[in-house]
Design a protein that fits this description.
This protein is mainly beta. The protein has two helices and nine strands. 11% of the residues lie in helices and 41% in strands. The protein has a five-stranded antiparallel β-sheet with strand order 5-4-3-2-9. A hairpin with a 4-residue loop joins strand 7 and strand 8.
């Protein structure tokens, strides 16, 4: 079991060869103690389609996200919680902020407008130049 601290709004990304899950801590429910989470799943069999659901997890309770992933609310504090995540070894597990950094490096800086998807420079066309004085006035060059 991997244990991660998360604050409301923070997410965990779980990726396998056939599916991806984004698990976001929506809010901490201090009166129970429990948390509310959002789970977004997509599969390689149905790319672009998302299965979304919300759930609540009580302290020391485990929620099965799917057949492979289990979430346990391990520790509860006022401003953050510690989640235990059980996944098989073939799954990759990331904090979302780290996953986004990896994705940016793998895609070769897609966020950089000066580079393309392959990381190569994007050709830029030079800005248009104003016409010369001769063309504007339709007169011969007077510098002779």
């Amino acid at each position: 079991m991997l244990i991660l601290s998360r604050e409301p709004g923070a997410s965990i990304v779980a990726v396998s060869a056939t599916a991806s899950h984004l698990i976001t801590l929506l809010k901490i429910l201090p009166d129970r103690p429990a948390i509310s989470i959002l789970i977004v799943e997509t599969t390689t069999a149905r790319p672009g389609r998302f299965h979304t659901r919300t759930a609540e997890i009580d302290l020391n309770a485990t929620l099965k996200v799917n057949d492979d992933i289990g979430l346990t609310l391990v520790d509860f504090r006022r401003d953050k919680v510690r989640l235990g995540i059980d996944v098989p070894r073939e799954w990759q597990l990331f904090r979302q902020e780290i996953y986004e950094v990896f994705q940016g490096k793998l895609l070769g800086g897609m966020d950089d407008p000066d580079t393309g998807a392959a990381g190569s420079p994007v050709p830029k066309t030079p800005p248009p130049q104003p016409p010369s004085r001769d063309v504007r006035l339709n007169e011969p060059d007077s510098e002779n």
